[in-house]
Amino acid sequence: MRFTTLVDVDSLAANLRAPGWVVLDCRFELGKPSAGENAYSNGHIPGARYVHLDRDLAAPIGPSTGRHPLPDPAIFAAKASAWGVGPDSQVVVYDQGNSFFAARAWWVFRWLGHETVAVLDGGLAAWQQANQPLEHGTPAETTQHFLASPNNERIVDTQQVLKSVHAGDFTSGAQRLVDARGADRYAGENETIDPIGGHVPGAINHHYARNYRADGRLHDIATLREMWQRTLDGTDPCNMTMMCGSGVSACVNLLALEHAGLQGAKLYPGSWSEWVRDATRPVAKGT
């Protein structure tokens, strides 16, 4: 069975040592870049390798980029090969439980042409709640050959977003730009990460946390589909673009859409942190 959006704890446990299964630990804290790696050292799912948001799932910040530019495909391919990911691998990614960082890894693999990648539903928290084991130490390297084939139809850049703003595409409903940040940051309130608060004119707010149940797992498919149909409001998912602060939490929304069978939405990787690099770009505030 191929897992392409979510995998549950029981399925992972049953296949943990199966040939071709690769598990990647993506735990991270935005304010403490070493926290996830330290947590990995203190215990992780057996066989898992560690993947760092800043080093592995993003390129270095440039003079005009957001906080998490997309990784260079060739560099990422070399790393994925060292992690043991080959063309037929079933990749499972997890984080501490909110899928925030695991979803970014899921999306990067999909962007680069690898479809058999799934997020562990509920993350490490769900694994531990099921009394599954942890291990210490780094597993032996089993190099494969990962070939990156970027599908840039999945992404939208800042100039495309700016063109759509000027054309009124977002306000008319011809396209939807969906901001995954919390409602306060979207409204321009309590901004503590980026130098300017607010949102791209015409963008609507759909906080990534809405996709989760209270236990940290994603809602069932029917609930997700109903929720996202309201946000789509008649717009084809192919005309929807996801953004957030730096292109990370937006991937949770993309994961939820894909799991709900609403395929085709794109990512604006630069997101708000890139948008506000240029003071001439318009900013909206409020709800």
Descriptive overview:
The chain has 287 residues and is of the alpha/beta class. It has two domains: 6-129, Rhodanese-like domain (Oxidized Rhodanese, domain 1); 152-275, Oxidized Rhodanese, domain 1 (3-Layer(aba) Sandwich), CATH 3.40.250.10. Helices cover 32% and strands 10% of the residues. The strands form two sheets. The protein has a five-stranded parallel sheet. It has a four-stranded parallel sheet with strand order 7-6-8-9. The longest helix is centred in the middle third of the chain and has 12 residues, at 100-111. It starts with 5 loop residues before the first strand and ends in a 12-residue tail after the last helix. The model has no long low-confidence stretch (mean pLDDT 96).
Short description:
The protein is of the alpha/beta class and 287 residues long. It has helices spanning 9-15, 35-41, 53-56, 73-83, 100-111, 123-129, 158-167, 169-172, 183-186, 221-232, 250-259, 271-275; strands at residues 6-7, 21-25, 49-50, 90-94, 117-120, 176-179, 204-205, 240-243, 266-267. Helix 5 crosses helix 11 (250-259).
